[in-house]
Write a structure and sequence with these properties.
Layout (H helix, E strand, L loop, with lengths): L5 H8 L1 H15 L2 H6 L2 H19 L10 H9 L12 H22 L5 H38 L10 H18 L3 E9 L1 H8 L1 H18 L5 E6 L2 E7 L3 H18 L9 E9 L6 H18 L3 E3 L4 H9 L1
Parallel strand pairs: 4-5
Antiparallel strand pairs: 1-3, 1-4, 2-3
Helix pairs in contact: 1-4, 1-6, 2-4, 2-6, 4-5, 4-7, 5-7, 6-7, 9-10, 10-11
């Protein structure tokens, strides 16, 4: 980049004062509640650096839109400066950056009030272009962040934080495709909490929700990072375990049952237990319907026998034949 000289250099040296001026503009249009939430320490720490980025870009107008990852991150961070815990949208962020642009241009005008008007026009043009680049980067980063947040919400069970049915279906489709193309097996574990209805009836649904969250934490701690743990609804959970056959998945099921019994509890109630059914691909089927059906049948056998864990005893072909009869 070119060295910063003249009025732009004076702007760079005055960036703390310019940050204060921008904060004054925010306060002028904010409500009392918004003023109380202003994170002034963060503004004092982050905004001067962002102003320095803009001024340095203005010093080399040809490079105005080539922002580094660090600069984009700082620009996007501006979106949280005024919000506290409130959501921001791209329009609000654009407004705040426009007000910052106005502060910088006014400072330039004051610097050059008695100077060369052509020099002022050139400096303003470069500064506006650079501010626009930062503004575009910040809005883009903010929109991407919001999109990721919405995607996460769409795939997450709101009570337990585990995956939901949508996430399970997507991962199951991915694992089936990998198995058919590369021969990589995986296991499906279907789980049902024993006695949750009794807890809900005897202690209320809030107590039942606490048990569900305890179970979810136990499951999350017991599976691998590559496994997907999901809540299907009510008292049913599922784990998809890549690169696991029926025998290894049964061992995982045993560990899950032990973890739930050890960590999930209700006063004056028997230990919380789970019935778990296991099916493996391709051993028990090579499509979603046969695998879920096999694991579901095994889960109910485990519940009926009291053993806690059961492995599917039907292949996909056998299940298809049973469906015809």
């Amino acid at each position: 980049m070119k060295p910063i000289r003249g009025p732009l250099a004076r702007l760079d040296r005055s960036r703390d004062e310019l940050a204060k001026a921008w904060l004054v503009k925010l306060i002028e249009r904010a409500s009392l509640d918004e003023i109380a939430e202003l994170p002034t320490d963060r503004i004092a720490r982050e905004l001067p650096e962002l102003i320095g980025d803009i001024v340095r870009r203005a010093a080399d107008a040809e490079d105005a839109y080539e922002l580094s990852a660090d600069e984009i991150q700082r620009a996007a961070a501006l979106g949280a400066l005024r919000a506290g815990t409130r959501d921001r949208n791209a329009a609000e962020l654009a407004r705040d950056l426009a007000s910052l642009q106005a502060v910088l241009v006014r400072a330039l005008r004051e610097e050059l009030a008695s100077g060369d008007p052509d020099e002022f026009a050139d400096a303003v043009e470069r500064l506006v272009e650079s501010t626009g680049a930062v503004q575009a980067a910040a809005i883009d980063a903010l929109v991407q962040s919001r999109s990721r947040e919405l995607e996460s919400q769409a795939n997450t069970d709101p009570l337990t934080g585990l995956g939901n049915l949508r996430a399970l279906q997507r991962q199951l489709a991915t694992l089936l495709a990998a198995q058919k193309r590369y021969g990589r097996g995986f296991a499906v574990l279907l789980m049902d909490i024993d006695g949750l209805k009794r807890i809900n009836d005897g202690h209320g649904h809030q107590a039942g929700d606490r048990v569900l969250m305890q179970v979810a934490m136990s499951v999350r701690r017991s599976v691998r990072e590559v496994d997907l743990a999901a809540r299907l609804g009510g008292d049913e959970f599922c784990v998809l375990a890549p690169e696991q056959d029926a025998a290894s998945a049964a061992k995982l099921a045993g560990r899950l049952g032990d973890a739930v019994r050890a960590e999930a509890a209700m006063p004056d109630e028997p230990p919380v237990a789970m019935s778990i059914g296991v099916a493996a691909c391709p051993e028990h089927g090579d499509d979603a319907e046969s695998l879920i059906d096999g694991a579901d049948r095994a889960m109910y056998r485990a519940k009926a026998s009291g053993d806690g864990v059961a492995v599917s005893d039907s292949s996909g072909a056998e299940l298809a034949e049973e469906a015809k009869t």
